[in-house]
Amino acid sequence: MSALTLYIANKNYSSWSFRPWIALKAKDIPFREVLVPFEDEAGNPKFREFSPTGKVPVLKHGEITVWESLAILEYLADFFPEMHLWPQERDDRALARSVASEMATGFTALRRACPMNMRRKPQPLAVDNAVKVDVARIESLWTSLVERSGGPFLFGPAFGAADAMYAPVVNRFEIYELSSNEGTRRYMEAIKALPAWQEWETAGRQEPWVVAADEV
Hints:
Elements: E1 4-8, H1 15-26, E2 32-35, E3 58-61, E4 64-67, H2 69-79, H3 90-105, H4 108-113, H5 129-149, H6 161-175, H7 182-192, H8 195-206
Parallel strand pairs: 1-2
Antiparallel strand pairs: 1-3, 3-4
Helix pairs in contact: 1-2, 1-6, 1-8, 3-6
């Protein structure tokens, strides 16, 4: 079987890279990591050497190239069905794909105003109403899904693709102090307790590169 290679950018900032990476690590799926750091907020021209869009992340598997975080997660779920990245029940799978897609296409106010930054010291950030609406929607999703499944993750005791899609939000909520909701905090702590999360966070904090646009 051909080896998996995941191309990513800075662990301190690259939230889209984080999503498939934490899924691979949390599920103990072997892969080779290739990190190409951002040159600026627009990315890096070198991304074009492996990415059809000039963006990260990109997964290479033999002759196959997969780009976009959610598409990579879907590919991994197809190739490693025993890892149960999506829930086994059909209704739960549909719900998990819905909330994952909502993260992929939505919450633009939060993502623009509050970039992921593993090195940032937690401190409050004044945000506008659009960000507050995004935060409230995410809190509602997390609380209702954990209550429905019994937690500690969105769809039960096992970390899955939906959790991977929301992992960067955990960092955003923490470093900008966007939530004091008890249920939200419990879910965040479950994600942060993952060895995969801690490995990424440690590496991100140790990186020497600085992208000024993401230093809010």
